[in-house]
Amino acid sequence: MEKIIDRMTLEDLSQVIEIEKAVFSNPWEEEMFYSSLTHYHCWKLFNKSASRIIGYLIGEKVMDEFSIYNLAICKEYQKQGLGSWFTRGIINHMRDYGARVFFLEVRRSNNAALRLYERLGFKEIYFRKGYYSEPLEDAIVMMKDERNIKRDKI
Ligand SMILES: CC(C)(COP(=O)(O)OP(=O)(O)OC[C@H]1O[C@@H](n2cnc3c(N)ncnc32)[C@H](O)[C@@H]1OP(=O)(O)O)[C@@H](O)C(=O)NCCC(=O)NCCS
Fold first, then answer.
1. How far is the CA of 86 from the centre of ligand 1 (A)?
2. Fewer Cβ in 10 A, N or C end of the chain?
3. Pairing relationship of beta strands 65-73 and 101-107 according to DSSP bridges
């Protein structure tokens, strides 16, 4: 598969929202995606061979911090290493723009995401009890702190 990482645009939102609704029990409101395009860093994973979006990542950079707010890979493309490849690519890119500390939160039961983030070097720093709804669940807050690491790539 020929795949590329690129900036998300307005024209991409219908495909992105379709994925969001298919993979999350409590998806973002559509409006959040429109607003994200203005306020956050929004990326898509594009399968050139099939000419379709197969994943996306949205995050915010503040000073040297980058917080991942949303990440998904289309159901039929999961468990093929794409989520890891995509997230690593974005982290490398944001590092080039000065990010040194990375944050995210994830449902306690989300083994796929926890595994992915742990493999990329994220560590649990605390949890927010009952943070998520539908179903009610704790959020694990994770951080990857590179401020004292002298290397360019993960
Ligand atoms: C989380 C998600 C992005 C992972 O994407 P992916 O492309 O399937 O991830 P990868 O194939 O790169 O796998 C990453 C690791 O998780 C493991 N993994 C994948 N799916 C898994 C599952 N269902 N259960 C347990 N481990 C799983 C893989 O084996 C891999 O570990 P390894 O490197 O030790 O082999 C994808 O499952 C998804 O979109 N889920 C729904 C949305 C979501 O939960 N987003 C994250 C919100 S914080």
1. 11
2. N
3. parallel
Q: Report how far ligand 1's centroid is from the alpha carbon of 80 (Å).
A: 9
Residue 25 has pLDDT above 70, yes or no: yes
Listing from the earlier edge strand, what are the strands of the sheet with 52-62?
Answer: 3-7, 41-47, 52-62, 65-73, 101-107, 137-145, 123-132
Mean of pLDDT over the chain:
95
Q: Which residues line ligand 1 (CB under 6 A)?
A: 23-24, 71-73, 78-84, 106, 110-113, 115-116, 119
Per-residue tokens: 13: 């939102």
pLDDT exceeds cutoff 70 at 151: no
Read off the pLDDT of residues 108-127 as tens digits, 9 standing for 90 and up: 999 999 999 999 999 999 99
What CATH number does the domain located at 3-145 have?
3.40.630.30
User: For the whole model, what pTM was predicted?
Assistant: 0.94
